[in-house]
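Worked problem 6 (solution included).
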Amino acid sequence: MQAKETLFADLVQGRAQQFQVPLYQRTYSWKEKQLRQLWTDILEQAELLEFGEKASTHFLGSVVLAPSPQNEATFPRWLVVDGQQRLTTLSLALAAIRDHVADAQPGEAERIDEEYLINKRKSGSDHFRLLPTQADQRQFAAHIRGPLAEQSLGGSVAAAYSFFRRKLVEAADPAAPQDVFRIEQAITARLTLVAVTAERGDNVHRIFESLNNTGLKLSQADLLRNYLFMKLRTRGKQVYETYWLPLQDSLSNDELEQLMWLQLVLDGDDRVRRQDLYAAQQQRFERGEVNEAEIEAYIRELNRRSSLFRRLLHPEEEPDPAVRAHLHRLDSWQAQVTYPVLMMLLDRRERGDLNSADTARAMSYIESFLVRRMMCRVPTNNLNRIFQAAPEQLPQNVSVADGLHQLLSAENRFWPDDDELREKVRTAPFYQYGRWHQRKMVLQRLEESYEHPEPVDFEVAQLTIEHVMPQAPGDEWLRMLSEDATLGESAEDLHSRLQHTLGNLTLTAVNSELSNRPFERKQNLLQGSHLEMNRRIAATERWGAKEIRARADDVADRAITLWPAPLHGVGRAERNRDWHLAHQVLAMLPHGTWTSYGDLAAFIGSGAQAVGNHLANTPAIINAYRVLTSEGKVSDGFRWTPQDVGGDVRARLTADGVRFTIHGAADPAQRLTADELASLVAGVDDDQADGEGSAQRTAESQGEETRADRFFRQLAADDSAETVETVRALFAHWENLGGWIGHGTGHVTTSAFLMLGEAGAPGRGIWPMTLYPGGGRGGTAEVVFQYLTAREPFAERTLREELLGRLNELDGIDIPKGKLELRPNFRLSLLEKDSNRELIAETLTWFRDRWENRDTS
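Solution. The predicted structure is:
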């Protein structure tokens, strides 16, 4: 047996060879969680390459190889005893890079193919440098050899390839573009493997078992502590009792590790990664003859800074009210990414370099930088680099606060100016971007700006974000919107564009029925609100497009006052970012789905005509041909750009799994709405992934009305008594199965979750569907396939497909497979049929059984 460290390029490059995954190996099974972690590691290595760093490659794991029985002297074949998941994933990532550059740089695509993926002069199965286990071979071959139209739907291989395709589109973000060939280099030359090569007769399974024995790893803080006190041979006990023990008592091990990393950053090492903390600090001490006095000074400084760090974790410990308010808001924002700069500011203040007023002013720039970027939908993927580098990049010829303002205003920081902020408040779907607590904080600050003489106690008030014009408008709302619609735009299109904009959103703690009732019915309820923003909405005579835009302008004025602007001359690339977001979501369209120009326009906050012009004139947009008219037809103005492959559009759509009606229109059930497009981008980490983070047992009450009572009252408002009783019976059946009913916190429209698992334990439960009152259009059951992709055992696609098949047996339900990663819904009124009630009960029993029999090892 031989073991050596190697790189992916060194392992697979060179002469023709093949790595064969044996039949007894499990199929390819990496999920989004593993893929996201690998992608983070790849981008980190690409960034190190960009700045010329040669150390700190990333160790990916081991690969155990043994000679294949089919081995030939002129064509080596190896059995992959361990490591097939890594090799398959890296091969799919390189195939995605090849296809990403194929149109613009076909020579580079061919090079990637020949260096890593194929044996050019071999045919049949020998053509592939990696040959997965038999169950994966057809789909893997489709991605390596193509054409992609021959891919079978679904499966982990297709999901991994699609993940890398969309991440490469995302990596072209104009705010922080990543060079695709640097990403390739990171994969092939920065991810290290230990290759264990067995000889014939070696017990490769024993090798596999020994490599997979795991133990409890020491943290970076543990390693560094042990190193430090090994060096303190004479003063260790005194230093430990005086400085280290209080430090250890005041911070958790994870917090201590974070403080140690921050100290390295503040001391000038602005490129160090937290996982490299121990090695980086050890290297600093080893550069010269370190003595005990220097070690003690380091620990003493760590102890001093710990009280400053605690103020970031516990803002109430900050004595100055203005600084404390900013720390509270940044803590609510969950802005840990800003810790290097916040620590620098508190450190400089303690040293006397700036006062509390300037510290608060500097923090206002940080808050504005984060808030304006979120409101204008600037991606967050470069924030780590910006804030980690800031302490070293701060200009020296101006005050700290002015220097930070200047630094964050640089063109490549993308801090939106007043004009961009005003435009996005008017047009961008605010409700679909950022995290829920960030959106809520923005609305809370806007409410505070009215300076009400009796301000709301936001710590106590249970406020939620609600739509004034409802998400499911009734006929009266649509009639009013039709008065405001422009030529060629329907009331539904106008509603889709405006519903999620900031001008239509408010905070409320109203416990009464608002739902989607006409605006006149809402006015009295909003007028009685203690929130100034709601009273101002209630004072408006109607609530249509003109009123929503007028409120948006007022909100924009307040936002511009609350959150200071960057210095004049900041670079603006917001339109490029909007189009980049459109390209990103199109690359994520699941097999068997399409969307419309209006849906895509509403998703990015644009107009349908502008979307059509952009798609028609921009080459190499993945899935551009899957954007159709609202009727499901190919637009009369559609044309391929000269750089695109082209072909018959309907044939391409059919190959992509899009069905057509007898009238030649794409199946409307396969259409993705603007909300569903937003769900694609949000992914399984969406805010509601744990039952809205607040699902509680039905018995919990709020005032005199329980959430369960509110749910059924809202359901009965526009559904038949038979539907309501059917839902009650459904809940009783679920509870008899051992489940429980959780309810969301929404007051305008509540929700009910069919939960399994421990009540009130986020992340530990599972639910197959969420039920919503209809708000004028009938209640719905939302099947949460998207969340199930991250929950065992339904992370396995085959089980989700079986759930889909069982639901589609119900009369009136036809959910397309293309929505197997989304949250499709059906009308609760369908459950009035006896046969449907029996089938849904059987389906829920099957779901419970699959969950209870899951493998928890």
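Discussion: Residues 208-216, 685-703 have pLDDT under 50 and may be disordered.
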